[in-house]
Design goal:
Helix content: over 70%
Largest sheet: none
Strand content: under 5%
Number of helices: 14
Radius of gyration: 17 Å
Mean pLDDT: 87
Oligomer: single chain
Low-confidence stretches: none
Shape: globular
Order of helices and strands: HHHHHHHHHHHHHH
Number of strands: 0
Structural class: mainly alpha
Length: about 260
């Protein structure tokens, strides 16, 4: 890892973290194009750097997080399944950080997105939950369970939680907003746990601290802008375009890169 690679991957992370296209998957594929080896340092970077994007959520929703205690309860309920399964399957999850896994997960996820959106349109679906404050604890738990699927690189944490939110009756914008907020406890826990498990990366090479901080800063700046743009997009369009993109990029890597 060098500083230029950190900037590029930080930009990719910030751009894709909250889009239903898998930020981890895109970083793994980008690393492949940059000829970076998927060693322990890079795998740790691909997890820890996501904290930069999550801090953008904290900044944007700060007042809501500060004043809504019930929201924190819902976020904790949603985090519990991911926290437990992530802790138990940590080593197995790391072994999935490969470009081929990402490509297949992107394609499958893209197909699911298109099916869900077409189903919504066909039945003229009316959302029953149009604000974060209206989300029930049961809905929060179900969405949290779906987040566990995102441990497979390429699945997309935001993608799996948004789909679950839609199926639970949330509007597109509400599902997206709760997905963003659910990332806060999830990625804080993942970042600190992964950093602890790989502490020797920072002890043996102090430059890695600066590289990680640089990547995180770039991710924060880009993600802050992307959140606003994405929420405006959802008020006018569906997720079908993201489903098509996932399928296309997945096949491109299967055919031309892997």
């Amino acid at each position: 890892m060098d500083f230029l690679s950190a900037i590029i991957l930080g930009f990719v992370e910030g751009l894709t973290e909250f889009l239903p296209v898998s930020s981890t998957g895109h970083m793994i594929l980008s690393a492949k194009l940059l000829n970076l080896t998927q060693n322990d340092t890079l795998k740790c970077f691909e997890v820890v750097i996501q904290l930069g994007s999550i801090l953008a959520v904290v900044a944007m929703f700060f007042k809501r997080l500060k004043n809504d205690f019930s929201l924190w309860i819902k976020l904790i309920i949603g985090f519990v399944p991911t926290g437990i399964i992530g802790f138990l399957l940590y080593k197995h999850i790391k072994n999935l950080f490969e470009p081929s896994t990402v490509a297949y997960a992107l394609i499958v996820g893209g197909v699911i997105f298109i099916i869900i959106e077409l189903w919504h349109k066909k039945i003229s679906y009316q959302s029953s939950t149009n604000d974060i404050s209206d989300i029930s604890y049961k809905q929060a738990f179900i969405i949290g369970l779906s987040q566990c699927l995102a441990m497979i690189p390429g699945t997309s944490r935001s993608g799996s939680t948004i789909v679950a939110g839609l199926l639970c009756g949330l509007s597109r914008q509400t599902a997206a907003a709760f997905s963003f907020l659910l990332a806060v406890p999830t990625m804080f826990a993942a970042t600190f746990y992964d950093s602890f498990k790989n502490i020797e990366i920072f002890i043996n090479n102090s430059d890695n601290i600066l590289i990680f901080l640089l990547g995180g800063f770039v991710a924060f700046v880009v993600a802050y802008a992307v959140i606003k743009i994405f929420m405006d997009f959802l008020s006018k369009f569906s997720y079908i375009s993201f489903g098509i993109y996932r399928i296309l990029i997945g096949f491109v890597f299967l055919i031309f890169v892997l």
